[in-house]
Amino acid sequence: MAKTILITGGAGFIGSNFIRYILNESEAVVVNLDALTYAGNLENLADIEQNPRYKFVHGRIENRELVLHVCKQFNVEGIINFAAESHVDRSIIDAQPFVDTNITGTLVLMNVARELGLEKFVQVSTDEVYGSLGEQGEFTEDSQIAPNSPYSAAKSAADGFVRSFVHTYNFPAVITRCSNNYGAFQFPEKLIPLMILNALEGKQLPVYGDGKNIRDWIDVRDHSSAVWLAYNNGKNGEVYNIGAESERQNIEVVRAILALTGKREELITYVKDRPGHDRRYAIDSTKIRQELGWKPTVNFEDGLEQTVQWYRDNAEWCARVRSGEYMKYYQKQYEFR
Ligand code: NAD
Ligand code: DAU
User: Fold this and answer.
1) Residue 140: what pLDDT?
2) 0.85 exceeded by pTM
3) Which of 152, 175, 209, 337 has its Cα between 20 and 30 A from that of 241?
4) Which ligand is located closest to the Cα atom of residue 80?
């Protein structure tokens, strides 16, 4: 019989791409538990909502009774936890929602998984737990955990709970730590979609600081294939870094977007830096490549071009996600920079 997996946060950017990926690539049945926060959007899954192997449940991962009920009702085999407050700038404004979802929510999911004896738990974590790099070197799974933002502090705390459950209870969990994702359905608070939409509209492109901070980019479809491998073949108790060897300075990314949208350099506006802004991330993903046979398939320039095209083709999606709460956030975030 096909296995049933609980995916949390499946209405967000990576979760929705992941659900689409595994419905295409496997026979698995997917139950998507999502609170539909500002970042959650059922429109991201409109093309699969009628799929008989897909079910949606509206609710929070901190709700123990609900998580228990859902796992029992659908006879869930394992959990992949994407649900999170995910934006660093928002965590600088208010860390509490990050504690509630990213830490408490993860703990609730693991307690239920343990109570029901589920077979696998994947914690979708981030390279930001390792802090910031200088000019040389890459993060390995053995790098020190050194979070610098309230967001990454909450993700690190959750990773610590996962590790403690493995160590204390022999809990069947793996942790994945991926670098910066880009692609279709990303909420336009993050660098790439924000810059694409502003460029398409001829608005200013707010680059923090000197624009020379470095991020290591990966197409969301490559992240999806890695998480799916980690769920199926990852060894319990292990951490797997995921990255596609695509380091770019932010200003290079912004210039590439200007070129793809045919807009002028003058739109670039250097603004006040993000407090505590990590300088450089770079992932060494040798372990998942060697042990699980994963490899990325999309190079950054192709993926970025496809992403720009997706935002061009989905103007209505963009208009809807940017109505209401988004504009209030945008004004608060950028008007004094
Ligand atoms: P996102 O903000 O786009 O989506 C998060 C989703 O979680 C939304 O659908 C939201 O409604 C849901 N959610 C939030 N709080 C919830 C709660 N309490 N209960 C249930 N659902 C809740 O985030 P994303 O960029 O898709 O990131 C997904 C995961 O991947 C996160 O755990 C994030 O830390 C991790 N990650 C992201 C990146 C990246 O570049 N975006 C890189 C590495 C790891
Ligand atoms: O590294 C993985 C992480 O990547 C994930 O865990 C997070 O969930 C995800 O949000 C992302 O974090 P970043 O802080 O790196 O992403 P963001 O898109 O917010 O910023 C990318 C870089 O661009 C960063 O150096 C800050 C800069 N930036 C961002 C915004 C929104 C700007 O210069 N201007 C902006 O307006």
Assistant:
1) 98
2) yes
3) 209
4) 1
